[in-house]
Fold this protein.
Amino acid sequence: MNTKPTINIPPNYWGYHNTNPETEDRLEKAKSYQDLSTICIVPCTGPIPPKIVQAWRGMLVPMNQRFIMIMTENMEVGAAYSETIKTILNDPQLSTWKYVLTLEHDNAPPPDGLLKLYENMDKYDGVGGLYFTKGEGGQPMCYGKPETFPFNFFPFIPPAESITQCRGIAMGFSLFKMEMFKDKRLPSPLFETRQKYTPGIGVEAYTQDLKFCEEAGKLGYKFAVDSRVKVGHYDYAGNSAGIPDFMW
């Protein structure tokens, strides 16, 4: 604080952000001026560890925007997502919200993870944080390079600190456009875990997330993984065997 006698002739006090050339780019990137209303769906298929709850409580949500969490109990994960989204779409208010965030009971997103996912939703219909399957041989949840033929969902490691398009994303911490779920061309249920054998055709085995991404991809919807958003995957069994709690 200035304690000396001073004569202040008013200059142009435009402020830091008014004169900083990076301000406009920062706000465009954050999309805070847009409707970022988000419904977070959490299918609870097991107990939620305290470390996971702590991560959730530290997660930043966009300021002055609508955000709620809907949790399910005693439902298979594919059915939990399908039935919850059906309920949302039948609600006159919730159906007008912009995004759906899927968050699973054993995933620990970083504090700024959601804010980063919003940044590229103008380019993609679903963007997921990067996490790995559990165990010492964990695979990255980033499936299928778009340029490969024939079509596949082989996991691959996206470049560090990047937004990488892929054919399928997992649902542990992923952001989707609500409008996509309103597309009547998508089969019902939206999310279905499949494992069956058809004579003459072969085996069909899909987790609910990749089955949805395959059907949506046929309609031109695009998905990506944001490797800047590193998500912890809590390993209950590994922890008891001496493996670190989180597989990143």
